[in-house]
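Much of our argument rests on the idea that a fold can be written as discrete symbols. The amino acid sequence and the backbone structure tokens for this protein are reproduced below:

___
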Amino acid sequence: MIDDLYSARILALAANMPRSGRLAAPHGTGEATARLCGSRAVVDVVLDADGRIADFAQSVKACALGQAAAGVLGEAVVGASAAEVVAARDALSAMLKAGGEGPEGRFEGLRALRQVADYPARHASTLVALEATVKALAAAGVSPPL
């Protein structure tokens, strides 16, 4: 059953984490840690004049599930509004914890993590990059609906 969790798709996403690293002059930085396992993400954002993400970098130390979620995030986040990021975080959380359908639109790739719902101890790690991104947006002065 654990082999189903770490599918080839999840491992491929984890191995390809776009926008890895840190930005030299971010508008906001956010950090999140999953207490149970210690997975950690630090995210930097630069916003455009409309408050959308113009540049993004992430430093993620997490299990394959957290890295896979960060991989999807890194591919899709540039151009996103704070509302889109918060909606993706909330939809991913609902998918993992309450049988929700998962994120739509630019973050629909996070649905590949649907099987994590059966492993509650892995939920926080899977959410850590999105949580850090929401905090980075808040630190940049964007008031996403938390």
Residues 2-139 form a domain with the Sufe protein. Chain: A fold (CATH 3.90.1010.10). The chain has one domain: 2-139.
